[in-house]
Amino acid sequence: TIIFTGCSNSTQHVGIKKESISFDEKIFTVDTPFDLEIISDVSNIEIFIWDENSVKFEMIKRIKRVYNSEEDIKKEYEKFKIITKQKEDKIYFKNEYVGSKINPLDQSLDLKIYMPRKAKSVKISLELGKIVIQDDLKCDINANLNMANMEIKNMEGLINFEGDMSNIKILGGTLYNGSKININMGNIDVKFKYQEGGNYEFITKTGNIDLYLSENSKINLDAEGYVQKNEFEKGNFPTKVRVKTDMGRICINKYS
């Protein structure tokens, strides 16, 4: 157990924490394929697909404090520094809480993003929280997470995922050649179709790896670590899948 101590001249409030919320939204019109970039410190992010030619950000700021005067809460809301902008074919969103972060979960942002299918890429950097992509996404995904988890319902594209203490789950779709998932501590759970002749990499230093591939798949598996189950025959096939865990187990499963 690590205990951090320090001194502060801030006023101490004693009592039961209460949550206050503030809602805001921002909409950008998009007529051509676009790139989306999201940077946040503490957020719960959901991404949805819709039929509008626009990207909408719905933001709920959440503050948990033992004091709740309107003046105090207003000051806390102002400490959320949110930047949204559009430049040519790129849409950019950044959120950071610039006040005290003794407990990061006492100030967080719920972010819902509604976007059309014409996205070229989605890039996400998140310190703490979770990301859920609720609808089918056909574009490349680049994610860099610290203490955050990611779930993708269905995707078609290249994924490049880097995580420190993170779990990632992909429930279905087609991953393009060159897709990589690399985690320091966390589990990898991916069901996917591959591009014939492609190269794929799934690595976690501490965690389990569960891959699910079609029962007719023919892959050249390069596994480092404890392989608990591999339901596919070995062979020198053109599609290469590298899996590695230093502490955990590996399961390569068939689905019909």
Give a short account of the largest sheet.
8 strands, parallel, barrel
**How would you classify the helix and strand content by structural class?**
mainly beta
**SSE succession:** EEEHEEEEEEEEEEEEEEE
Mean pLDDT: 92
Q: Please provide the count of β strands.
A: 18
Q: Write down the overall geometry.
A: globular
Termini Cα gap: 46 Å
Task: Work out the radius of gyration.
Answer: 21 Å
Give the helix proportion (percent range).
Answer: under 10%
How are strands sequenced across the largest beta sheet? 8-9-12-15-18-16-13-10
Proportion in β-strands: over 45%
Put simply, the count of helices is 1
Walk me through the structure:
By secondary structure, this protein is mainly beta. Helices cover 3% and strands 66% of the residues. It is built from 1 helix and 18 strands. It has one helix at 70-77; strands spanning 18-29, 34-49, 54-65, 80-87, 90-97, 107-115, 119-138, 140-157, 159-165, 168-170, 173-175, 180-185, 188-191, 193-194, 199-206, 209-214, 220-230, 240-255. A hairpin with a 2-residue loop joins strand 4 and strand 5 (90-97). The longest helix has 8 residues, at 70-77. It starts with 17 loop residues before the first strand and ends with a strand.
